[in-house]
Amino acid sequence: MKSEKIAKLAGVSRSTVSRVINNYPNVPQETREKVMKVIEKYHYEPNTCARVLAGKATNTIGLFVISMTDQENPNRIYQNNYFAPFVDAVVDCANVLGYYVLIHTVYRTEDYLKVKQAFSQKRIDAGIMIGTEKDQEILHSIVEMGYPTAIIDYDAEEITAQEEKYGNLVIINSTDYEGTTQAINYLIQLGHRDIGIIKGRLNTYSGKVRFAAYVDALEKKGLPVNEDFIIEGAFLKKAAYEGTEKMVHRGKLPTALFSSNDDMALSAMEVFKDNGIRVPEDISVIGFDDVPVISQITPALTSVKVPVYEMAKKAVEAVIEMHAQEQYRLQKYVVRTELMLRETCAKAKMM
Asked: Among 8, 31, 203, 309, whose Cα sits 20 to 30 Å from the Cα of 108?
């Protein structure tokens, strides 16, 4: 059904129907309700292409999930215990506000073209990017297109010096440094002195910050950073499994292990189980992110909670508000992490 028919049935002009669809404020409530009743009765959907050509909003947000490291896993986004809940949270928050979400995955550098095309072809009103790595030039070129854009997990200091240039950008991070410090200090309080780490990718903001906090926390307590206990996990299950296995086969283990994300911690725990190493009796383990599955396993994993839903909600609300008001300014938000104590940590055995 066309808008002309809707106008005729509602007894209003076609322009009034257009103003109702596009949520103009200068429409009497009685008229708006009359038009909406007809729209709902006949399941009218406005033509998106026509709306774009007319310069109207698409009521669509682009969500771009970036994962260029795990080339071997074709399901590396939806089997990822961090990305999947974030995607769900963005969709939920956007739908509540009357927006659709167009989801794109970026597996290769060339895939960034998808992001640019979505903006340039006006298929989306705003964008959210998560999983960004050190692709500064590409990211900056996207932001410089001028559309409202939120980036999750990104070094705000790289942008702050050019605030006027990136006024359409929203940067949202969690307190990863503080969360990691709290986790390491907790292990120290339990008497652990040999504390290892499964590193994330250091070309990501979270990977870099979590590793720096681990080193700083140990050094502040006068404890050694033992290279034999540093595992290159790259935020990947397979890499974490293989790295932990190598450490076990060397025959020398730390008494505690901090993992830069939960997926890698679960891989390490699998290795320990396969080799008869008990958690937490023989080694304590702490993860990061607090993904849903870790509270359901045995033993339940102690982890640093990242408020994924809060970050997704803030990103959605910020870009929608920016688009609606057409008033851009660089925005930075930080949400707090929290150490969630469960069953994978115990006091260090006295030697």
From this structure: 309
pTM confidence score:
0.80
CATH of the domain at 244: 3.40.50.2300
pLDDT tops 70 at residue 205: yes
pLDDT, average across residues 94-109: 87
Which of the pair, 143 or 186, is modelled with greater confidence? 186
pLDDT attached to residue 152: 93
Q: Domain check: are 302 and 312 in the same one?
A: no
**Partner residues linked to 17 by β-bridges:** none
CATH code of the domain covering residue 36 = 1.10.260.40
Residues 6+ away with beta carbon under 8 Å from 86: 65, 130, 152, 308, 311, 312
**pLDDT at 165 exceeding the cut of 80:** no
List C-alpha distances in Å: 129 to 104, 113, 137, 314, 334.
Answer: 10, 14, 15, 13, 16
25: cis peptide before it, omega within 30°? no
Q: Establish if 349 belongs to a structural domain.
A: no
- Report the interhelical angle of 29-41 vs 3-10 (nearest 10°): 120
Structural domain boundaries, residue 208: 176-306
Rg, Å, the chain Cα set: 24
